[in-house]
Amino acid sequence: MTEPPLDRIWDLHCHLAGVPGRTPDELMAALVARADRMGIERLIVFMGYPMVADPSPDELRRQNDQVLQALSHWHDRAFGFAYVSPNHVEASLREIDRCVRDGPMVGIKLWVARRCADPAVDPIIARARELRAAIYQHTWNKSGGNDPGESRPEDLVALADRHPDTPLICGHTGGNWELGIRTVRSSANISTDLAGSDPTAGFVEMAVRELGARRVIYGSDVGGRGFASQLAKVRSAALPAADRRAILGGNLRAMLAPILRAKGVAFEP
Fold first, then answer.
1. CA spacing 20 to 30 A to 158: which of 21, 70, 138, 196?
2. pTM of the predicted model, to two decimals?
């Protein structure tokens, strides 16, 4: 029996940086053109350019404005997450209200300004939760040591323990995915993002085996990576077709369904 087509791909992790173009509109058009070639239905875009690790309140607003402009002609193909920082809590809450509550964005992105184990991030998490917004936290385990504010998967576990009913996304599965998967395994409210690392055999199979397919989400980290190599992680994995379909889009649609419905966005679950 032939497997159903692996369509309905939603990409969790896309950037404007690293894509050819001079303006947000040109960059977004280039992203969509590449997504079309790979059969990707929807993109999640966050952070503007150039990327700034510890942004000021003005920089947060500037980068979110770039994403808002990029989305402005592509609401049928892309959603955005607001870039926020626990080093500027009040400014971040204003950005969440501006971009998510009063704007088209459907989640938040936390990067490397401050480790998410720090309770300073809690008001941001609480506000995103109130709005049913998705919460994406970059994590990495670097062999030479992380940057001072860069979260590891164990930092996200500490955050998950403080917010046990809030869904969280472990960005990059911690880079060192074997360690990252084991670290978040017992935190049922953490899903893992496949984006950014090499398409190494066994990555997705281990994630499904240890976490269950419903806690694994495809993302590319384009333009730092290409769509093709990141899709290959899922398409080449030894998995049932139903698990691949969930990872490539079904899990992300389920996570975003509450906020999309609250915003009146029509979509097929």
1. 196
2. 0.96
Cβ proximity of 35 and 65 under 8 Å? no
Closest CA to 11 of 41, 53, 34, 54: 41
Cα gap 39→218, rounded to integer Å: 14
Q: In whole angstroms, what is the distance from residue 72 CA to residue 139 CA?
A: 29
Q: Which helix (H) or strand (E) holds 9?
A: strand 9-14
Q: pLDDT, tens digit, for every residue of 174-203? A: 999 999 999 999 999 999 999 998 889 999
CA dist list (Å): 156 to 60, 100, 126, 165, 170? 22, 22, 15, 14, 7
User: How many angstroms separate the CA atoms of 164 and 119, rounded?
Assistant: 14
What domains are defined for the chain?
9-262 (3.20.20.140)
